[in-house]
Amino acid sequence: MTNLQEAKLAREAEICYSTAAMVTDYDCWYPGHDSVTVDQVVSVLMKNAENACAMVRETVAAMPKTRRCKCGSALAHAIQTDRKAIPAAARKRLGLLLDKY
Question: How confident is the model at residue 6 (pLDDT cuts 50, 70, 90)?
Fold first, then answer.
């Protein structure tokens, strides 16, 4: 799945979305950099995992209590199908997203 596909799915689910990327090594693209070992990559990967956890904790702690963005109502005008034409099984499966509409 591409980042664009992930962003579209997040939008459809009314989820605010951001991408975070962390480098593990430079030798694959940086010509002047020495080769790295698997142990070095794993070490950086483990540190990145710690950093990612800290980033998520801090981001969640900093989130406002109420949403002011448009993400939370992205489906309000996006559902074009007549509600009566949506099969009951589909409504049940998608209830978490659709019930408020």
Answer: confident
